Amino acid sequence: MPKLVLLWTDAVLWLLLAALAFYGWRLRRLPPLRAPWRRLMHDAPALCALIVFAVFAVVALLDSIHFRRALPPTASGEVFHATRTESLLDELLARPIAMRESSYSAPLAAVAFNRQSVEQGGTVVRTFPRLQHGGAHLADPQRDRAGDIARRALAGAAGGLIVAAGLFALTAGWRARRKGIPWRWALEDVVRDRTRVPLRAALLCATALCLLAGVVAALMSHYHVLGTDRTGNDVLVQALKSVRTAFVIGSLATIATLPLALVLGIVAGYLRGWADAVIQYVYTVLSAVPNVLLIAACVLMVQVFIDQHPELFATGAERSDLRLFLLCLILGLTGWATLCRLLRAETLKLREMEYVQAATAFGLPVGRIMLRHILPNTLHLVLITTVLDFSALVLYEAVLSYVGVGVDPSLNSFGGMINLARSEMSRDPLVWWSFTSAFVFMLALVLSANLLADGVRDAFDPRARALRVRKG
Amino acid sequence: MTSAILRRALYAVLVLVGVNLMTFLLFFTLNTPDDMARLNIGGRRVSPEQIETWKAVRGYDQPLMWNEQAEGAEKLTRTVFWQRSVSLLWLDFGRSDSQNAVDIGQEIRTRMLVSLQLAVPIFVLQLIASVGFALVLVFFRHSRVDFWGVVLCVLMLSISSLFYIIVGQLLFSRVLKLVPISGWAPGLDAVKFLVLPVALSLLARLGGEARLYRAMLLEEVSKDHVRTARAKGLSEPAVLVRHVLPNAMIPILTSAGSYLPYVFLGSLLFESFFGIPGLGAYVVDAISAQDFAVVRAMVFLGSLLYVAAFLLIDIAYTWVDPRVRLE
């Protein structure tokens, strides 16, 4: 039996998922709360963004189940566990991870990127040697490679299409049953975009994702789809593993801002007077320091502390995970001022509302008023800020890693990938695939988060709807 | 009016004292000066004498907050807190933690001029470009141009500035060979080193800012006085420039003003990528060399500039909008 390992960030990610599930369950019973979510579902770009975002989330969550493999039992029957911590995603990607080359190779290549001296029949020739794993099954790479890739890609695309067609059929079937109409009508509604929820757009988006996943999955077992890096590791694997780091930073760091921002913002707005003055002073001081510098200072201090106390950590994974966790905490503790200011302003407005006055007149305790009457009515602000911050933080991670105060270098991250790719981009001939992969993955993640954030803002903030873009 | 400004200035000083205390706690409670000495001298075996000299040169050899041995007011002043942290308030930055213990103040003075040469053109051009683009989008509001313009903005703001820099350097310096990849020269020669970073910085921030300014302008467009202006028969461009833009200037100035400290502090990324010896590059170097004195000095300088910038913005409000009175 492998031994499960619960890292700090894993625990928080799963707790977050549980909290979301609980929220969803409550949502079913509270129709007024459901209305903005329904508005979000009716927004085609937001819905597609949500789908892409969910795919990334699944990758991140798969990468958040960690375990240590059991070693073969010793003679005395005791079972030991490997020191290396693996995740479920590693297990799924076991084959590409195992296909380790010696150095750079271009995407889908069958030969190495650099010339090497190889002995051929007694003489030494400078040539591009065959890769150990990428395209190793080909007899003559020059002749067979293109055909083989095309065949596999087509097969993968066909598989993806079948899954997508299944999705279409399922959606139509579900709609037919709900509306009590024939299945064919339901399918026609979906295909002609006559549904209230933009199912066609959502399904087309899912189809594109299925096609992509099918092609990549079909090619992944015999080629390096996005090439290999300097140490011969598969770039696609690195990019997929980086998704978790980006996710952890994006979600954890915003959640870390919430306790302080919520408590202080509402207390300052509701109590006013000296409590307000003190809280305002604290967040003015905090926001007076340029963010990057404050974060850099905190991270440096924590780093020195970790370096001076190596005895506190059992494995390397635990140390790099704790560093990531602390980075999120630092980002949270330095970044709560904006949300706090928003919540204070909103509370100042809310405390003058009649229902709050009524609650005060009934003699409810102050804490209860803040908890039951003010807090729920500020939550839309919290949600909007949280989603908006996600993409900014993912971008921020890359900058922090470049400056040298980001995540542990042993942890896969987009910032780390870009950092390494920097020197590759000045090589001649150019090694472009690491950089491009990081670019594409990051763009997909950040863009979907941004579109989702726009959708959430439109759905939850009535004032924002006036500014939305309409296609003329 | 004067007393209002004076009160704001006093509050600003109070904030700076808070920042000072916070940085001191941050830098001296988690790790002791001995830890930093060991880190900076490097190596596993560091003799106690080495640590003592390292601390003595940089003024860390005194008690942290309270000196029992000293007399009178010196109990307070002959401490690390007074000499290395409070002294920042009168811009005495002291010596750096690195091996050669250079004077940080001197370094900051020379580097700030370099940073300004990069940051001032960026700040001015950024404001013009972003407001201009936003005005175009607002002129074509609720049309195809607006829609695709906003799509472009979202796309641009979803790309990390690192990508703009790396691709820009590759394209314009390596492939087209239009400008040098990186470096610096004093005087007018600096222009050829500055063109690319300025252009890339404009591009990297255009998406986010133009979208923000578009929203601010749109909020103004539907107001009554704008409708009146249109009803008078003014052309749409004239309405936008004369009636909408001046009123939207307040939120725009506020958000642009938050960049003001960075005008002096320079850009961390652009300076270190393009080898421009400004303050931004100084911070990046200090972080990688774990030179805490420099980081501390820059944290304080940054907040000083931030506080000053907001004081200026408050005063500028009264000038842009006569209705606003400082109270």
Commentary on this structure:
The complex is a heterodimer of chains A (472) and B (327). Chain A is mainly alpha-helical and 472 residues long. Helix content of chain A is 68%, strand content 4%. In chain A, the strands form two sheets. Chain A has a three-stranded antiparallel β-sheet. A two-stranded antiparallel ribbon of chain A has the order 4-5. In chain A, a hairpin with a 2-residue loop joins strand 4 and strand 5. In chain A, helix 3 packs parallel to helix 8, helix 9 (235-271) packs parallel to helix 12 (316-334) and helix 15 (366-403) packs parallel to helix 16 (414-424). The mean pLDDT of chain A is 86. Chain B is mainly α. In chain B, helix 10 (224-231) packs antiparallel against helix 11 (236-257) and helix 11 (236-257) packs antiparallel against helix 15. The longest helix of chain B is centred in the middle third of the chain and has 36 residues, at 104-139. The termini of chain B are close together. At the A-B interface, helix 10, helix 11, helix 15, helix 16 and helix 17 of A face helix 1, helix 2, helix 7, helix 8 and helix 9 of B.
Oligomeric organization of the protein chains: heterodimer
Order of helices and strands of chain A: EHHHEEHHEEHHHHHHHHHHHHH
Low-confidence stretches of chain B: none
State the helicity of chain A in percent bands.
55-70%
Report how far the terminal alpha carbons of chain B are from each other: 8 Å
User: If you compute it from the alpha carbons, what radius of gyration of chain B comes out, rounded to the nearest whole angstrom?
Assistant: 25 Å
Low-confidence region ranges of chain A = none
Order of the strands making up the biggest sheet of chain A = 1-2-3
Largest interface: A-B, 52 and 56 residues
Taking the sheet with the most strands of chain A, its summary is:
3 strands, antiparallel
Mean pLDDT metric of chain B: 82
Give a count of the beta strands of chain A, DSSP E runs of length 2 or more. 5
